[in-house]
Design brief:
- The chain folds into 2 domains: 30 residues; 70 residues, no CATH class.
- It is 53% helix and 0% strand.
- It has 4 helices and no strands.
- The chain is elongated.
- The chain starts with 36 loop residues before the first helix and ends with a helix.
- The structure holds zinc ion (ZN).
- The site of zinc ion has 8 residues, from loops.
């Protein structure tokens, strides 16, 4: 039951707007409830230590740039507390691999 932060009216779940004062109500966050199938797929890959694959998958699906995709995957990881395995070496290698591409994109 989200309570309106403005008038303290109790509102039914999943209403975006307070029934009393019509203010926008922040939705209660459930840690995995708002995960789309695609987010779960990405998280599954990063959990398995396949972060690069996750980034590639993200790009393939969204058409995002490399940096954008990497940021999105990392923010997903952060939000859901995923520790990517072997982040040390792998991320250095990944950076070494993608930096020239990123520079080309933004230069
Ligand atoms: Zn209200």
């Amino acid at each position: 039951m989200p309570t309106c932060p403005f008038c303290n009216e109790s509102n039914p779940s999943n209403v975006g707007v307070c029934k009393k004062c019509h203010a926008t109500i922040p939705q209660e966050e459930s840690p995995h409830g708002d995960l789309s199938e695609f987010d779960q797929e990405i998280l599954g890959l990063t959990k398995g230590g396949k972060k690069i694959a996750a980034i590639m998958r993200y790009r393939e699906k969204t058409g995002a740039g490399l940096k954008e995709a990497k940021d999105a995957v990392e923010s997903l990881e952060e939000r859901y507390g995923v520790q990517s395995k072997g982040a040390g070496c792998a991320s250095v290698l990944l950076l070494a691999a993608i930096l020239p591409l990123v520079w080309r994109l933004f230069a």
